[in-house]
Amino acid sequence: MTKVLVTGGAGYIGSHACKALKAAGFTPVTYDNLSTGWEAAVKFGPFEKGDLLDRARLDEVFARHDPIAVVHFAALSQVGESMALPGKYWRNNVAGSQTLFEAMLDAGCRQIVFSSTCATYGEQDNVVLHEQSPQMPINAYGRSKRAIEDMLMDFGASDGLQSVIFRYFNVAGADPEAEVGEFHRPETHLVPLILEAIDGQRNALTVFGSDYDTPDGTCIRDYVHVMDLVEAHILGLTWLAEGKGSAVFNLGTGSGFSVREVMQAAEQVTGRTVPFVDGPRRAGDCTKLVSGSERATRDLHWRPERSTLAQMIADAWRWHQTGGYGDNPDDG
Ligand code: UDP
């Protein structure tokens, strides 16, 4: 079967992508250093443990599997941490991606689907963000992803590397069959933190800022179901296989929800209350990030049909109740 190399395949989005790739007839080969991923999440194809910065290991894996394309998820992705430790983000995300792209090109693999982020847009006066909106990231994480996008353009011009860049908005939810799901240690993302607070695994959710210029004072984000998101990657691979060339797509729904609205939806789905406290703003957070996703709908025929708050939280709750990959919430 046709192999696709999935960097970060042991992580949250990568593991769901492996499931979707397998269902679409590919063999997903996971390449992951397990710094934030879980070997237990690698369920749908071979596992090659390795680091993006390890060129010799990458060469070996390309030689062994000869993938037709790479889907590149592996990255550090915490906004707050990126502000405190920017060097870690530039080394792992930017230098790591450069090492990967050079290994790909030397192996003759010239198609890549890359996980970028709406954090590359930055703060833009409450507008809906389109692919052609200026990229003015306000945190080191967003700047590291913008740099990788630039690098892809340069390798495209010099070596014919074809890339589909997806700028993700906020990914939530889990595999409805709960084979894989979101499991970070420590957890920093809103939906799993809300579910842990509901479940008594942590005392309370801290709401990061309630004085933003939004209707209820909390930040607004555009949440997309992880299964919808990974489906777009299959469409992206098809796009490249059909020779349609490099392209950039936002992946979001066009609807924004505040932190308090997500909390209310979780209360409705679970029938329980969310214990919370209002805290200070988190460094690097934008007030509002909402996607203009017409391009993905029009050109890729992408339909994010599972991306309602109720569906995302119901699927995340089902996964949460399995206990995830197994340790305590505050370990890690
Ligand atoms: N958030 C929050 N409390 C938390 C974690 C997140 O209030 O403990 C807020 C955060 O400020 C942002 C939204 O929830 O407005 C989504 O944050 P998350 O870290 O899930 O994703 P990000 O937007 O950073 O990619």
UniProtKB/TrEMBL annotation:
Record keyword NAD present: yes
A Gene Ontology molecular function term of the record: UDP-glucose 4-epimerase activity
GO biological process assignments: galactose catabolic process via UDP-galactose, Leloir pathway
Domain NAD-dependent epimerase/dehydratase: 4-252
Documented EC number(s): 5.1.3.2
Cofactor(s) the protein needs: NAD(+)
Keywords: Carbohydrate metabolism, Isomerase, NAD
InterPro entries: Epimerase_deHydtase (IPR001509), NAD(P)-bd_dom_sf (IPR036291), UDP_G4E (IPR005886)
Signal peptide: none
NCBIfam families to which the protein is assigned, alphabetical: galE
The reaction(s) this protein catalyses: UDP-alpha-D-glucose = UDP-alpha-D-galactose
Family statement drawn from the similarity comment of this UniProt entry: Belongs to the NAD(P)-dependent epimerase/dehydratase family.
Pathway assigned to this chain's UniProt record: Carbohydrate metabolism; galactose metabolism
UniProt keyword DNA damage present: no
Protein name: UDP-glucose 4-epimerase
Species per Swiss-Prot/TrEMBL record: Marimonas arenosa
Subunit structure: Homodimer.
